[in-house]
Design a protein that fits this description.
Helix content: 25-40%
Order of helices and strands: HEEEEEHHEEEEEHEEEEEEE
Largest sheet: 6 strands, antiparallel, barrel
Shape: elongated
Strand content: 25-35%
Strand order of the largest sheet: 1-10-14-12-11-15
Low-confidence stretches: none
Distance between the termini: 66 Å
Number of strands: 17
Length: about 325
């Protein structure tokens, strides 16, 4: 029995030694080199640079009131299509007390002037009928009387405009009615009924009641790094990828490159603009984020291979194994 165990132990040691030698040999042996092959294919090759930005209408019109007051009625909401002259809102005038007082004083003064002119006219008209004065002298009093009537009418109209923003005989020209100044779609209505608004004047930009734009004419506006701006020029083709419509590619033509860059996050960026070629049946919303591939060079239908297959050597031209 003891002899059998010694033989078994000896065989185990020999087997362990043999396995160890085989394992070390396998670790030190070079792995066989396996070569993969690829075939050239015909494809389009495009050299490009990328710009990030957004799609915007070419023109956005801000509709502002001509009088200050309170929004009494809104006639549109975002998404509505409007024509030039369509009603946007109606404003209730809150008269300025200083301007109202001045307008009332002008009316009172005009009435006094008219009464005096009336007295002079009546007296000199009687003298003219009695041939005491000449027509030329009487004509001066008649002209002063007519002028006084016109001044009173103008003062009363000014008072009515100050109070109500509209003339009774010209409601179509009411300053309280805010109308669209362009055809397009209403993009935004930043006010609500009851909001106070300020008129446009030399000292204030006024309150925006609505923003109108023609979504049929869109542009891409983005930024290009200074390292790439020297490679592009007006007229180049762009390929737009819009985040909300990532399955569709839009064409565009570069129209504008800013002559001056701005610093953003430590890098100089230049603004570019490109006209978007819209596709029938696809609605582009203002503000869509987009990436633009600017085509620097392009060749179509050429025999090509992946760049990873090309080998470079200082002593010879690039080659392929």
């Amino acid at each position: 029995m003891k002899k059998f165990l010694r033989i078994l132990l000896l065989l185990s040691l020999v087997g362990l030694f043999g396995f160890t030698m085989w394992y070390l040999y396998q670790k030190s042996a070079d792995k066989p080199v396996v070569f993969e092959t690829q075939e050239p294919v015909v494809m389009d090759i495009i050299k490009k640079t990328v710009a990030t930005g957004a799609v915007k209408p070419r023109k956005e019109i801000e509709i502002k009131p001509q009088v200050s007051g309170i929004i009494e009625k809104l006639y549109v909401q975002a998404g509505d299509k409007v024509k030039k002259g369509d009603l946007i809102a109606r404003i209730k005038i809150i008269p300025n007390m200083v301007a109202l007082n001045q307008a009332e004083n002008q009316v009172n003064q005009a009435k006094i002037n008219l009464n005096n002119a009336q007295i002079d006219f009546d007296r000199n008209q009687q003298l003219f009928k009695e041939k005491v004065i000449a027509f030329a002298e009487f004509q001066q009093f008649k002209l002063a009387f007519e002028s006084a009537k016109q001044e009173l009418k103008a003062a009363e109209e000014n008072l009515q405009i100050t109070r109500e923003g509209v003339l009774s005989n010209s409601s179509s020209a009411s300053l309280t009615l805010v109308k669209s100044t362009a055809d397009g779609m209403v993009l935004d209505v930043p006010v609500e009924e009851g909001f106070s608004v300020i008129e446009v004047n030399n000292f204030n930009v006024g309150t925006t009641i609505a923003v109108v734009a023609n979504l049929g004419e869109m542009i891409f506006e983005g930024k290009v790094d200074e390292s790439e701006v020297g490679k592009i020029r007006e007229g180049m083709d762009l390929i737009l990828t819009i985040g909300a419509l990532d399955q569709v590619k839009f064409g565009a033509t570069l129209e504008f490159i800013a002559p001056k860059g701005v610093t953003e996050n430590g890098a100089i960026q230049f603004t570019i603009k490109a006209a978007v070629k819209q596709q029938e049946g696809l609605f582009l919303r203002a503000g869509y984020s987009a990436n633009a591939d600017i085509v620097l060079a392009r060749v179509d239908s050429v025999l090509s291979i992946p760049e990873a297959l090309i080998r470079f050597d200082d002593k010879q031209k690039p080659y392929v194994e």
